[in-house]
Amino acid sequence: MCGCGRQTSVIRRSSYSRGEYEGHHRRFVRGHSVRKRERTYQQAYRDDSKELRECGGCGVEKPVNEFTKMKRSPDGLGFWCIACRRAYHERTYGYRREKMIESARLRHLRIEFGITGMQWQEMFQAQGGVCALCRRPERRMGNYGKVKRLAVDHDHTTGRIRGLLCHDCNLMVYWVEKISAEMFHLMEKLPAYLERDPLGS
Predict the structure, then answer these.
(1) pLDDT band at 110 (very low <50, low <70, confident <90, very high)
(2) Would you list the domain boundaries of the chain?
(3) Residue 17 φ then ψ, to 5°
(4) pLDDT tens string 22-47
(5) pTM recorded for the entire structure
(6) Angle 12-33-13 (CA atoms, 0-180°, nearest 5)?
(7) Residues 22, 25, 30, 36: is their CA dihedral positive or negative?
(8) CATH: 3.40.1800, 1.10.150, 3.40.1560, 2.60.300. Which one for 115-195?
(9) Rounded CA gap, 201 and 190, in Å?
(10) Contact call for residues 85 and 78 (beta carbons, < 8 A)
(11) Measuring CA to CA, how many Å separate 58 from each of 54, 162, 163?
């Protein structure tokens, strides 16, 4: 019988590595163990607002609700507080994140526009670090609270690179090119539409 009071099932197949033999009853109900029952009891009757615990990172005693959860721990809590764990991840993986972002940007320039990061930098310096159209620096914020880089403007038909534009100007040029052909056909039909007789007359 399990410690929780429930009758355990009969073992159908022996497992010598677990110490289980065919025909015997299991020691615990599936999912139960002595350690898990004690941890569940401690968590159920613990007041997170009053109980303090020393952080393994900063060494400061903090309420247990400021620690991460860890199932493998005897009390179900992590060894470091949330602030120390965030600082550790930022120190460990922050530079990797920046390196991955820069690598993805260079790969995008090479595949989409056929230029290198050095060529983009030369165009950026030739324009004085501002948009080639509005002559203002980029103002849009990107990921991680940083200002976006100037976008590469190119002819979608020939692929010729025309310059570096800010986000707003690049979007405006895209829509102008997209609707210019449609607007040309509409302008040809517009005089006939304006001169026609109203419906029903």
Answers:
(1) very high
(2) 1-13+20-45, 48-114, 115-195
(3) -70, -30
(4) 767 776 666 555 555 455 545 544 55
(5) 0.48
(6) 10
(7) negative
(8) 3.40.1800
(9) 20
(10) yes
(11) 8, 53, 50
